[in-house]
Design a protein that fits this description.
This protein has 245 residues and is of the alpha/beta class. The chain has seven helices and seven strands; from the N terminus they run βαβαβαβαβαβααβ. Bound molecules: NADPH dihydro-nicotinamide-adenine-dinucleotide phosphate.
């Protein structure tokens, strides 16, 4: 695991938006950030699941989370602008933006990948991360210590047969991260990517149906690298491709 001792209250009053926060790694990270004092914005498209995460945060004594419902497959420029306007009015700044939502797509060879599936996976895994970051730039610039995290994968760093659209989308995610990192360095905004590594979620089970899930770490176990990047210890780290485990 990434070696970082997480101090109590690390994220006190930091405003952090996490996409795909209704389940899996995103939900665990949202609860983890809230437990460290953050004001969390939970993005997803499953309202009931988002409400449940919000309730769990409240029950654990965290600040009341905002929920943000948006289907990243359908969202257009106007939808992203509306998100920015809402968060601008509500918070006036954004200290953390974690692009965690992702789509596995068909686990088949490129030869068998329908063009429409490639477009769909690129839309959710790449285009949404670009458009949301672009729309939220004024809010990130208004923070004194903003951190943006893109979610990669081992197949975003080395191509692998049978991972088709997903692998291509994660390579593009790394490219997006690197370009944003250079372009936003002067604004003091750090931009990095995290490869969670095999983590016990629905996506992992879909990708490895034959695997015994008990052997795979829970999402709660892989949080230190995210927390490192979101907190002040991450200052000066930018353009890096990091591993959670
Ligand atoms: P899950 O499948 O458990 O969660 C994926 C999340 O993305 C869900 O919240 C899902 O929402 C959301 N999402 C997908 N499509 C859309 C959409 N169109 N609009 C809005 N939200 C959407 O996956 P994980 O928690 O495992 O994965 C989180 C990230 O980590 C992903 O980027 C994944 O690629 C990456 N990753 C995961 C690994 C693992 O072993 N688990 C390994 C390497 C990388 P909904 O519930 O509505 O579908």
């Amino acid at each position: 695991m990434f070696d970082y001792h997480v101090p109590a209250d690390l994220l006190r009053d930091r405003v952090i938006l996490i996409t795909g926060a209704n389940r899996g790694i995103g939900a665990a990270l949202a609860k983890g950030c809230a437990a460290l004092g953050a004001q969390v914005i939970l993005h997803g498209r499953d309202v009931a699941a988002l409400d449940q995460v919000r309730d769990e945060i409240l029950a654990a004594g965290g600040q009341p989370a905002e929920t943000l419902v948006l289907d990243l497959e359908q969202a257009d420029v106007a939808a992203y602008a509306a998100v920015a306007q809402r968060l601008s009015q509500r918070f006036g700044r954004l200290d953390g933006l974690v692009h965690n939502a992702g789509l596995l797509g068909p686990r088949v060879s490129l030869e068998e990948t329908p063009a429409s599936a490639l477009a769909q996976v690129l839309n959710v895994n790449v285009q949404a991360g670009f458009a949301l970051t672009q729309a939220l730039l004024p809010l990130l610039k208004a923070s004194s210590d903003a951190s943006v995290i893109f979610t990669s994968s081992s197949v975003g760093r080395k191509g692998r047969a049978g991972w088709g659209a997903y692998s291509v989308s994660k390579f593009a995610t790394e490219g997006l991260m690197q370009v944003w990192a250079e372009e936003l360095a002067d604004a003091g905004i750090r931009v990095n990517s995290v490869n969670p590594g095999g983590t016990r979620t629905a996506m992992r089970a879909a990708a490895y149906p034959e695997e015994d899930p008990v052997r795979v770490p829970l999402p709660e176990a892989i949080l230190p690298v995210y927390l490192y990047l979101l907190g002040p210890a991450g200052q000066g780290t930018t353009g890096q491709a990091l591993n959670a485990q």
